[in-house]
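Summary for the steering committee. The consortium agreed at its last meeting that each partner would contribute one worked example illustrating the joint modelling workflow. Our contribution is presented below. We chose a case with several input lines so that the handling of multiple components could be demonstrated. No manual editing was applied between input and output; the record is shown as generated.
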Amino acid sequence: MTDNNDNNEELRIGVYICHCGSNIASTVAVPEVVEYAATLPNVVVAKEHKYMCSDPGQNMIKQDIQKYKLNRLVVGACTVSMHEPTFRAVLADEGVNPFFFEMANIREHSSWVHTHEKEAATYKAKEIVASAVAKVSFSRPLEMFEVPVTRRALVIGGGIAGISAALDLADMRIPTYLVDKSPSIGGRMAQLDKTFPTMDCSICIEAPKMVDVGKSKYIELLSYSEVKEVEGYIGNFKVKVERKPRYVLEDRCTGCGLCADVCPISVPNFEFEEGLGPRKAIYVPLVQAVPAIYTIDRDACIECFKCVEACGSLQAISFFEEPKIETLDVGAIIVATGLDMWDPTPLEEYGFGVYDNVATMMEIERLHCAGGPTTGNFVRPSDGKTPKTLGLIQCVGSRDKRYNEYCSGFCCMYTIKNALLLKWLYPEMDITIFRIDVRTGGKTYEEFYERARQAGIHFVQGRPAEIREDPVTKNLIVHVHNAALDRQMAYEFEMVGLATAAIPSAGVADLARALTVPLDTSGWFLESHPKLKPIDSSTEGIYLAGSAQGPKDIPQSVAQGSAAAGRAARVLNAGKWQIDPIVAYVDPTRCLNANPKSKCTMCAQACPYGAVINQPGTGNPSQIIPAKCHGCGTCVAECPANAITQWHFTDGQILAQIHALLADKPEEKVLAFTCRWCSGLGADNAGVSHFQYPANTRNIMVMCSGRVDPDFVLEAFKLGAGAVLVSGCHVQDCHYITGRQKADARMEKLQTQLDRMGLTKGRFRTAEVSATEGAKWARIMTEMGEMVIELGPEAIKAENEKLRPHLERQLKRIREGLDVSRVLDIFEARLQGVKTEIQQAYEREQR
Amino acid sequence: MANRYAYYPGCSLGSTAKEYDFSVRAVFAHLGLELHEIEDWNCCGATHSAIYKEDARFLLSLRNLALAKAQGFDTVIAPCSACYKNLRRATKLADANKNLLARVNDQMKEPYNGGVTVLHPLYAIIRDFGLEALKKRVVRPLTGIKIASYYGCMLTRPVDEFDSAERPTGLDQLVVALGAEPVEYDYKAKCCGGALALSHTGSTVRMAANVLTSAKGRGAEAITLACPMCHMALDMYQGKAEHAIDQPLHLPVLFFTQLMGLALGLEPTQLGLARHIVPTQDLVARIMG
Amino acid sequence: MTSELHPFLAEVMMLRGGKDVLECYQCGTCSASCPALPDMTHGPRRIMYMIQNGMEQEVLSSPDIWRCVSCYSCMNRCPRGIEITVLFSELRRLAIQKGYVEDKEAEFGQAFTVTLAQHGRQFEPELLTRYYWRVRDVVGLLGMVPLGLKMLVKGKLPFKPERIREPQVLQEAGVIPPKPALPGGKGLDRVVALMIGVLGFVDALVKLVSGKKEAQHG
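What follows is the complete predicted structure of the assembly.
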């Protein structure tokens, strides 16, 4: 790859600008951009199309590749996340190396965020295209790497989504580990009495599946275990799982239960019964537990050892068990961690935890379940009597900006379900549901709501403001504004149920960090694309199922479990998998370690993956193992000798982009370097959300903020930039573990340097923007864009002039990197040319 | 640290609620907490400050804070809930909105630059003196007297770190510390309607009657509270409330500092107990034994 | 996505507490919490809806904004985080500015602010004079007489205004509009001056008669 220098090849670039229906064309004057693109160096043809990604659009490009002998392609359209693979495939089909392609994002980065500034958006679109043309001009042909795939899967979470995924994988004879943090699988579904809208018995339909998991020879169940560390990449993950001590040996326990019979200690069963029923200190959380293995709760156990005696010759009880770490090798991971229910105590006006007869909906569920602590006798806590009146309140902690902003999705339906069930059990019970809206978006769900109304359940449109208890009767007074009556009402109930919000499972933040998969702002796992990749995480080889990704009901969870199994099997059954060759490469002639006296370990220290063979003192230059390299580029920026480069993101290519974006009126512009995963997606998110910000902003995307060399920033200021931003992830979310950390250290130093040079505060900034923080991205862009405008071009120019000698001194060595001098020569000559032209024009004018 | 506070009495404590002023000063002095009245303080504007101009709301509050700071204090005690809410919100806004602060400072002789905390005397006593210490100073425990704590609105809303906005406990804790029996009732943090006393007297009377009957219904023998406006509604308007609901209430309404004074052994004359519209003699006599 | 907002909605959104009015999804928590709802025409729930739909006339001329007791219950409970109480107080100013107002509380608020700006502190006799002059409510005034007398006896009404050193600072800062714009006019000012004079005289008289008594509280 290295030798294939394209110096001799004539560049023939085609530029294609997409209207995206009216998404781009209604703001950006596409014909103008096309006209401009045609004037860019080496551009042979420039065209537009209403939908470039459509078959006719792709065919037009394909025909042109043949007709004009194109060897480079730029498409001005949407984000790389969307259609980079599409157009790479177009090139591959026509026999051109797919890495000779660049996407110019003029939708998320221009038309959608500068909707009302048509001229400025068009100008920006032109420069984004110029930047892509500049970058593609210095592209190299790259080949995908092929890595072997370990044909084993890991499913994290044994609720109905995880069970469905594991069973489907097992059906495909893919060996699968199923890890659950609880002593039994089953998840939330096992706790439910009946399911809507069919009113099947929940455990009756789930238990057979749980048993299947236990029996399957392709599934290894690791219950009472937690994932602690994840290393590796698609096809080759190494996962460390902690097996918590049960103090009962799994291979000996038969689940006979004699131990629990003799155990003298009873404590509330919070694992399964919401604390409403008891369990022993040695327990299974539910009778249908899979595995049917007991666990000792050491916090409750008094160590009387009666259980040891009862167990007898089986000798299954071991008080000396310690936590164990097991390492699993898997090719794909499915995250199915499910949900918890929100604790409504902070919502003090509802008196949960203060008034006996205010219960959560999950408590209500257990109280009317035949398998529950009251064997289906629905009674209220204060006096053990069946309430004759029941009030059910929706949206408790959901759709609430103070707690959880989102709609939990299924509560309308499960509240109606509980109401209907109770109405069947106790026809005389008077039930009222307080709702803001009723959401029945699912097949036959609306009919279910209809049934509830037919059954005489009352619906009140109004969110109760407060609940008060009558101290004598322990009845509850619900104060609400009834919209239909337009009146304040006080309803008295013998019991009240709160439909609390669904929230992400406890501990997912730690898991997300281990997986380096981002969470959204509400704490759910973030999907790769909301429409087209709802099952994929942003890390290849890791998939999402069920409520891990957002609240879901049972059919949705099952569907996603199967879908995730399919996505994973696609990799696991492939045998080998191709990964992007955007890895780092050490130029052996420049590496300091070529000199045996050198002791340089910078690249090895920068690499979070141990991908560098670093042998200082031996005279062997450092080497990077491509299969281990994840392509963050942090070592590239760290190398003190400019000896490392990253394919597809070479110093030369990035400098070419900087020059292209700052060719015209640089002092009026904000140049932002973003990483690919957090800030890059965050900027896209701002676009998708149509958050508006000033149009004097320009982006350059690299894989990780760790790739950003301080020289890039200095070069930008040397060229006259108004302001520069380096934006990456929140440090704990780094897609490359420590890339952000390295970037931070480097940028802190740079900041001090720039401060010392006298750069105005705020002209250089760093930021942390996650993939979901589009609003934050827009805010930062607005602050910086407006700051540049406020300072004014003259002041900035003057300051840059003052900085220039310092910058030039700092940038003395920039040309040493691979390709860099070639790129800079070309651009500087061009710059010189422009200046000469201006000079000549000026002189002509004078004459 | 010696507890030295700037004291912002507010207008009501110089007129309709003089007994609150007397009792706050007496109790604080008795506990060794120094109060120094802010020189040249001005009215906070109650709920009407911004009726002509938005920034006036902050100007009226910030001027007092600036004076307190200039006179060497960093904590201001404001016994009226409305003043307390206004001054406290102003400190927070001054920290959060620098543009607004600069704009308002431009119009004041003495600018305010942050660094002042505003406390209500109730929470100052709970926080800085402590209820355990207070218990030890009680010489006339209010044993057996059922007292309904009334929080009203602006003492705990908008919510801050001192107490719950929905289920406040500060006054009840104090009542317990003084040896009395707290009364649980629904209206303890509901509005008395005092803000509309003159313009829409009917509203005030209705709301005050709700509070009074709710407390009475749960067996309260007296009400204690921490705001001159609430006191006006529940004490001065109690007669109108009785008239409106056509039933006698006879609930003496004492400022918490008056109750404290009695329990701590101060003389009733020091506490302005004769100034109430609803007579307090019987209750005072019971406490004095 | 800056679609064109109704001008009144846009105006309200610029007010303190107004920026989130479009967050309202009509759950009704505010109206359920409001202790003054029985005295209102619409209640906060409908007022929010009317603001969202640009119904300036209905919102600003409604008595509701003057019936708010500033209890902050709605604001404390609003699941959308809308600062309803703050917004209501801002709507009062807007209503005055646009000349919509016909409510006794509006008169009281203005009497209150004007009085405070004269002295820097409140002076109840002047406040009452200004208020009753403006509303010309003789029945209301007479209704207050028994309570007023009791208050007088209990020493709850002051005779002399307390003044800060430079009340004009407050006036210049715009706490009240400049003199010509003040409602009530010169007639009212003359009445107030007379009242202050009489009270001052009474005060001096009382002090002369029972000077020592006043020194002891209670």
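Chain A touches chain B at residues 348-349, 354, 466, 468, 471 (CB under 8 Å). DSSP finds 23 helices and 38 strands in chain A.
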